[in-house]
Write a structure and sequence with these properties.
The complex is a heterotrimer. Chain A is an alpha/beta fold. Chain A has eight helices and 15 strands. Chain A has helices at residues 33-38, 80-86, 106-109, 123-135, 161-166, 190-197, 212-224, 266-271; strands spanning 9-18, 23-30, 46-51, 55-60, 71-76, 93-100, 113-119, 143-149, 171-176, 186-187, 204-209, 232-235, 251-252, 255-256, 263-265. In chain A, helix 6 runs parallel beside helix 7 (212-224). Chain A is globular. The two termini of chain A are 28 Å apart. Chain B is α+β, with helices and mostly antiparallel strands. Chain B folds into two domains: 2-62 and 78-204, no CATH class; 214-338, no CATH class. In chain B, strand 11 (251-257) and strand 12 (261-268) form a beta hairpin. In chain B, helix 6 (214-220) packs antiparallel against helix 9 (289-307), helix 6 crosses helix 11 and helix 7 (225-232) crosses helix 9 (289-307). The radius of gyration of chain B is 22 Å and the shape is globular. Chain C has three domains: 1-105 and 154-177, no CATH class; 108-148, Nuclear Transport Factor 2, Chain: A; 179-304, no CATH class. In chain C, strands 2-1-3-4-8 form a five-stranded mixed beta sheet. Chain C is built from twelve helices and eight strands. Chain C is of the alpha/beta class. Chain C has helices spanning 3-14, 41-44, 75-86, 108-114, 145-148, 151-154, 181-187, 191-201, 210-214, 240-253, 263-267, 275-289; strands spanning 20-26, 33-38, 69-73, 95-100, 122-127, 131-136, 139-144, 166-168. Chains in contact: A-B, B-C. Chains A and B meet through strand 4 and strand 13 of A and strand 4, strand 11, strand 12 and helix 9 of B.
């Protein structure tokens, strides 16, 4: 981050990956070589991407800090800024303010079993941590990844799925909502498949992200499996502008999602007033 | 430092300062009083009424250009130009409540981690010469939020009307510097008269309301939507309260495409607006005016005090009450939460 | 029985069937009224009517859509109800209308100008038949109601509610002035003078949208073009030009729909005379379409309908 927290770094898009019909992944490099070299962040932190003349939006940095060639963001096309981002191509210039927000509690996760439960674009924040853990595999015990989407076409990070599913040191389970021709993995809603996998809560932390309805039922499933509130971690999204706790719109009571979040444990969420 | 300045000389002071600074002063403006940039020849209107809008624009203008991006040459990479504010400002004739607004901004705009350079630069370069109030309006409640009609905190110089001029007291070194100008005369024994006037103004306000229980009591009503529906029934969900308020510090950031360049501006935004929290997906965590008013009142009287040593994010100037098109009274809402029988 | 007693009796007779009845009560000081949402007979004790009851309560009706509510309306306010009904923005079955025969309301701005001290220092108010006795900062002043009446009341030709379930009070014979001096004077200005006037006046606008949200006919307020990014018509930059652009959009959206209730101007916290724009626009609509919004049920605003050829727009004769 710059001393002036509103000042973005200029960055060049180096690669654009069409993930689904409305999600693209952008790989970017800061134009200032030194700043790119010095750039550090923790998994879970977010960044603000600018299309100048259009505006800024918040996205999680979904590359791993262990892989420093580029910063990666996945963008679903929903509004003004994301629509314009989707029109950009390698070589195009954007602004980036990063890293912002808190991160996954890396130290607390060491030595634990980890269960990732991701749905749709909600895989983005999990991908960072998942990749980070693969690169530091010995620090963690059993790792399970349950990743689901509506249909095979709605899965992001397709290029990486073969590696994730074939690795012996992680248990990757993919699922889609309805049967589809040629699909060799699970069929069923994420919370149901989670119950089927039946991860043991002892010394295990569950990390989940996805659409609100999926989160709701995943939390119920995790509780049913015996997970304690402080061992369930999720990330929140709110409309943000400044990203640094000033502009006043992303608060839930006294907590600002941009600086106190986006990562919260279920125990912390329960302490907050109900305004999601 | 204590001095005396005549009414005429105060107007001269404004004119002299206007040569080197941006001077904001209350002037009669088609039936109302607003802070306008003072130009020599203008006459200040300090006494007919409190200015409709607070003087917060001096440190937090309604539009602040954060940066400009030039992309004049297609084959060259665009260039970001940081546009930090320059120059000095003087606010003359605001009331103590208006000058105190920035004290609420300070702990938000400057923390251990984040410094807002635009605000801090203006904050450092702005001097407030305030006028103590001699009589409370029906909407005034500064005494209930830890202040009073002659509160010097937030001001650099505090004036008290005595006869045909003002007893001027410096509050900060910056204020003292201005008071060295020849327009200020010796105060003689007028200081005593000023003290008596200030004491009388405070006495006229009566007993202060105790907001100590407000943070917890408001939070206790958080999920009680019936309470908030009733409290917000007459609210029309506009932004008059917010934009009049000396302490409301929330803002929007938007880009304007200007052809060969673009600007990123920050503008006053208000929590009563539907779009304030509207998310890209169409989901809105504060979808009704009841949710929004809950956040507005909660922020000032509960969340902010909880985060900042119990300080209420309100100066008690009453602008939100008297300028509200529907007469929503924030005092009544907080009282209703405080007095709510579980 | 007084008009207020009659009104209370009428409201009492229907309160049981309704979510609430919207009226007025005394506000934060004796000079100001504020909307009152009557849910019980105890609330009814606080009801007031009279020259201080300025708010057009029809503004709230769309917010209660789908629920049965009562509303107290003056003649002018009843035109807003008619317009809301005509545009099918509310259902007649959902609203019980308590119509008043109105003797006119005050302009707080005129009171402010007429008092010897700021109305913020008000101590007491006595409302007489044709005067207001106001004590401010220890000084008593008697204001003639005629001198502090709202502009809209001077030209009012509908003092008695045009649509109602209960009509309360003695019917009036309207005696509207043909025009307002402030309007005539403004329209007589040259274009350059008008431009300079708005340039100056819109410099005062803070874009709080009180004018928009107080307007009973501005029903898209949560999705207003003023803050939309797509389409992007108005910058958020607070410039006289952008502020005026918003007002131009506002006034155009109200063409043929504005009933001149004056709420936009009343709501403006920085006293921008917005009715200068409204009255001018309404005059054009009257001339071109011979239409006045809110005057009769079952009319369609001319810009919400389509005619192959408008009688008074000579499209082919150019």
């Amino acid at each position: 981050m710059n001393a002036n927290p509103y000042l973005p770094d200029m960055a060049t898009i180096v690669e654009v990956i069409q993930e689904t019909h409305n999600i693209k992944t952008f790989r970017i490099v800061l134009n200032n070589e030194q700043r790119m070299k010095d750039f550090t962040f923790r998994p879970g932190q977010v960044g603000q991407l600018s299309v100048f003349g259009v505006g800024e939006s918040t996205f999680v940095i979904n590359s791993s800090p262990t892989r420093k060639d580029y910063l990666q963001f996945s963008v679903m096309r929903v509004g003004e800024v994301t629509t314009r981002l989707h029109q950009l191509q390698p070589g195009d210039q954007i602004g980036v303010r990063a890293p912002l927000g808190n991160s996954f509690p890396l130290e607390d996760l060491k030595g634990k079993n980890i269960v990732f439960v991701g749905g749709g674009i909600g895989m983005a924040p999990l991908r960072t941590l998942f990749t980070y853990m693969l690169d530091n595999r010995k620090d963690y015990k059993d790792i399970t990844l349950l990743y689901g989407a509506r249909s095979p076409a709605d899965l992001t990070y397709k290029a990486e799925l073969p590696e994730w599913t074939s690795r012996k040191d992680v248990n990757t389970v993919l699922t889609i909502d309805n049967p589809s021709e040629g699909w060799e993995h699970k069929v069923g809603l994420i919370p149901n498949v989670l119950l089927e996998i039946n991860p043991k809560p002892k010394n295990t932390v569950a990390i989940t992200c996805g659409p609100p309805i999926m989160i709701k039922f995943t939390l119920q499933a995790l509780k049913k499996l015996g997970f304690e509130d402080q061992n369930i971690i999720t990330t929140l999204e709110k409309r943000m502008k400044c990203g640094v706790g000033i502009c006043g719109r992303c608060n839930i009571g006294t907590k600002y999602v941009c600086i106190d979040g986006p990562v919260f444990t279920y125990a912390q969420l329960k302490e907050l007033p109900s305004e999601l | 430092m204590e001095k005396f300045i005549t009414k005429e000389n105060l107007n001269r002071l404004a004119a002299e300062l206007a040569a080197t600074c941006r001077v904001l002063a209350p002037v009669a403006d088609c039936g109302t009083v607003t802070f306008r940039r003072f130009q020599p020849g203008m006459v200040m209107d300090l006494h007919s009424r409190m200015a409709a809008v607070s003087p917060k624009a001096a440190t937090f203008p309604q539009t602040e250009t954060l940066l400009v991006v030039k992309r004049e040459i297609p084959e060259k990479k665009p260039e970001i130009i940081e546009t930090l504010p320059e120059g000095k400002n003087v606010v003359i004739g605001c009331r103590p409540c208006g000058a105190r607004g920035k004290l609420i901004f300070d702990p938000v705009y400057e923390t251990d981690k984040i410094k807002d350079p635009y605000y801090l630069q203006r904050r450092k370069n702005t001097v407030f010469i305030s006028l103590a109030c001699d009589r409370p309006e029906t909407t005034c409640f500064c005494h209930s939020v830890g202040s009073g009609p002659a509160d010097p905190s937030g001001s650099d110089v505090l004036l008290t009307l005595v006869g045909e001029g003002y007893v001027a007291r410096s509050v900060t070194p910056e204020g003292e510097e201005i008071m060295k100008m020849a327009l200020f005369a010796d105060a003689g024994d007028k200081g005593k008269e000023a003290d008596a006037k200030n004491a009388k103004a405070r006495e006229m306000m009566g007993e202060a309301h105790d907001y100590a229980s407000a943070p917890a009591k408001l939070l206790a009503r958080f999920d009680d939507m019936d309470f908030w529906l009733a409290q917000s029934a007459k609210c029309i969900s506009c932004g008059a309260c917010t934009y009049m308020c000396p302490t409301c510090y929330c803002f929007n950031i938007t880009d304007d495409d200007l052809g060969l360049s673009s600007q990123r501006i920050r503008t006053w935004d208000n929590c009563m607006s539907h779009t304030f929290t509207l998310e890209g997906s169409g989901h809105n965590p504060r979808s009704t005016k009841a949710h929004r008013l809950k956040n507005r009142v909660g922020h000032k009287f509960s969340y902010y005090p909880d985060l900042h040593k119990g300080v209420i994010a309100c100066c008690g100037c009453g602008r939100c009450i008297k300028q509200c098109p529907a007469g929503v009274d924030i005092r009544q809402i907080v009282n209703a939460a405080q007095e709510y029988a579980e | 029985m007084s008009q207020l007693d009659d009104l209370k009796t009428a409201i009492k007779s229907r309160l049981g069937d309704l979510e609430c009845v919207i009226g007025w009560e005394q506000g934060y000081d004796p000079l100001h009224a504020t909307p009152l949402f009557i849910r019980s007979e105890a609330d009814l004790d606080r009801l007031i009517i009279g020259p201080l009851a300025v708010h057009n309560l029809a503004t709230y009706l769309t917010g209660w859509k789908g629920k049965k509510v009562g509303v107290v309306v003056k003649g002018c306010d009843s035109k807003s109800v008619i317009e809301l009904l005509n545009e099918k923005l509310i259902n007649r079955d959902d609203v019980v209308i308590f119509g008043l025969c109105c003797d006119g309301v005050v302009s707080q701005r005129k009171i402010r100008a007429a008092l010897p001290a700021d109305p913020g220092f008000v101590e007491s108010v006595e409302i007489g038949a044709d005067s207001l006795k106001v004590t401010v900062a220890g000084q008593a002043a008697t204001l003639r109601l005629d001198d502090v009446r709202a502009d809209k009341c001077r030209v009012c030709d509908t003092p008695d509610a045009l649509v109602s379930d209960f009509l309360i009070g003695k019917a009036h014979t309207p005696a509207p002035a043909p025009s307002l001096k402030c309007q005539d004077e403004f329209e007589a200005k040259s274009d350059a003078e008008k431009f300079a006037f708005w340039q100056e006046t819109m410099g005062r606008c803070i874009r709080c949208y009180a004018c928009r949200n107080a307007c009973p006919m501005c029903v898209c307020r949560d999705y207003c073009i003023a803050t939309s990014r797509d389409p992007l018509w108005v910058s958020q930059e607070n410039l006289p030009s952008e502020n005026m652009m918003f007002q131009m959009i506002h006034v155009s959206h109200l063409a043929g729909r504005c009933t001149e209730c004056g709420e936009c101007e009343r709501a403006c916290p920085v006293d921008i005379p917005l009715m200068l724009l409204r009255r001018y626009m309404n005059k054009q609509v009257r001339d071109v379409f011979q239409h006045e919004a809110g005057k009769a049920l079952d009319q369609t605003p001319p810009l919400l309908t389509f005619k192959v050829e408008e009688e008074r727009i000579n499209e082919r004769g150019w």
